[in-house]
Design a protein that fits this description.
Strand content: 15-25%
Largest sheet: 10 strands, mixed
Shape: elongated
Structural class: alpha/beta
Distance between the termini: 27 Å
Low-confidence stretches: 1-21, 28-33, 35-40, 395-409
Bound molecules: S-adenosyl-L-homocysteine
Order of helices and strands: HHHHEEEEEEHEHEHEHHEHEHEH
Oligomer: single chain
Radius of gyration: 21 Å
Length: 409
């Protein structure tokens, strides 16, 4: 587990060196709760990979190695269209070139350490080990009509939401664009190979709902979104409309995203309609209040034409009161929004638990009665700690064993 330190309320210089937080505009906030394990330290970067680069960057990288530009296109076709990352299979490249380009542009980034499955093999969680020993997790979920990859954008998370397992350990580091793309690539390859029950298929959706706060790793997440959505061979060719970026509500980053000209879906983790409670459940609310977050969300909806998804974890006797449903309905009525109610997945040692089903049903009815579109999130993967908020890969071996004990082998 990364050593966690507290950001000092008056330590902007220290905070500014903190990976991710500075980029998200959090460096000046002085939020003591935003924990991070990397302040002041320079970490080694993940090796450069084809998936970090746009097509022009790939041609430049290949040229640096003394190869003609079309080699970049050949490599891209192998990786993004044929889903091959083994240079030995790239027989249209001369053997020496294969080894050189493969070594330079397709270094192994994430190694699957463990794989867990449930739902008859249609939900699969992978624990990945990065080049520096950091652990992250991704989850593939196959439904009758779609295949969703839930990916991590950071190792750990600095946002410290008290109900979320990842939030408890602080931030280890940002993932590179290629480390994010690799998670989708692995799912796409498993689907193409028919390794997931139901026959060969494609990954149709990507949600940034694994470990980390995607908008605190803005540049790499944006690069990853481009790689995931550009048509092959530039990228994996998944529709922008089928990609969801989920955020605690980093207002400047939401506004920046709205100006990118993309049509990805935005999900806002609201969890409370009032600042008093949201300050506790989503500590970054002390910097950007509920009203500001929702303003940015509505501007995002206006800019993209996309309905914003409002995430609301139902926590028994904490945020599930009828008056909070009514307050939430008032905030959302008439807006381009959709509420996703997520039964809380209690994390180990948590004092909180999921709402009583009857209470959750009333909460839903109150929203629906006011014309607010609302659904209850399916909580796949609960048995393999793969459901929302349970991704908490840890370098602590005993914890890992506990988490993986339930493996249906
Ligand atoms: N940092 C981003 C994305 C990761 S979490 C964000 O906060 O949006 C994806 C979703 O799962 C968020 O809505 C998050 O609040 C929710 N979540 C986290 N822990 C949870 C838990 N224990 N039970 C239910 N939902 C949880």
């Amino acid at each position: 587990m990364a050593e966690a330190i507290e950001l000092l309320p008056h330590g902007p210089a220290e905070a500014a060196r903190t990976e991710g937080l500075a980029e998200a505009g959090l460096a000046e906030t002085g939020l003591a709760e935003m924990r991070t394990g990397v302040a002041g330290k320079r970490r080694a970067r993940p090796p450069r990979h084809l998936a970090d680069l746009d097509p022009a960057g790939r041609r430049a990288a290949v040229a640096e190695l003394g190869q003609p530009g079309y080699r970049a296109d050949q490599l891209s076709r192998h990786y993004f269209a044929r889903l091959t990352d083994d240079p030995a299979e790239m027989t249209d490249l001369p053997a020496g070139v294969r080894a050189e380009l493969g070594g330079a542009l397709l270094p192994p980034l994430l190694t699957a350490e463990r794989e867990l499955e449930c739902d008859d093999g249609t939900t699969r969680k992978t624990l990945w080990r990065a080049f520096d020993g950091a652990f992250v997790e991704s989850v593939l979920m196959r439904y009758p009509d779609r295949v969703t990859m839930c990916v991590s954008s950071q190792a750990g998370c600095g946002m410290a939401c008290p109900f979320c397992a990842t939030g408890q350990g602080g931030l280890t580091r940002n993932l590179s664009a290629a480390e994010i793309v690799t998670q989708v690539f692995a799912g796409a390859r498993a689907m193409a190979a028919g390794a997931v029950p139901g026959g060969p298929g494609r990954v149709s959706n990507v949600v940034f709902m694994g470990m980390g706060e995607p908008l605190a790793n803005y540049r790499n997440v944006l690069d990853a979104v481009r790689r995931i959505t550009e048509p092959a061979p530039a990228g994996l060719g998944i529709s922008q409309r089928s990609v969801t970026v989920s955020t605690v509500g980093l207002v400047p980053a939401i506004r920046k995203l709205a100006a990118e000209g993309l049509s990805v879906r935005l999900a806002v983790s609201l969890h409370a309609p009032d600042d008093e409670l949201r300050d506790e459940l989503v500590p970054v609310n002390r910097r950007w209040k509920t009203a500001e977050v929702l303003d940015a969300a509505w501007d995002y909806a206006a800019a993209t034409g996309r309905r914003v998804s409002i995430e609301y974890a139902m926590i028994r006797d904490i945020n599930d009161h009828a008056w909070r449903a009514d307050r939430l309905a008032s905030l959302l009525a008439g807006r381009l929004a959709h509420v996703n109610l997520i039964p809380l997945n209690p994390t180990p040692g948590s004092k909180w638990t999921a709402s009583d089903p009857a209470v959750a049903a009333e909460f839903l009815d109150r929203l629906a009665a006011r014309g607010v579109p609302v659904t209850v999130r399916d909580t796949r993967g609960t048995q393999i700690d793969g459901a929302c908020g349970q991704l908490a890969a840890s370098t602590d071996e005993s914890k890992q064993r506990a988490s993986y004990r339930s493996t249906p082998s």
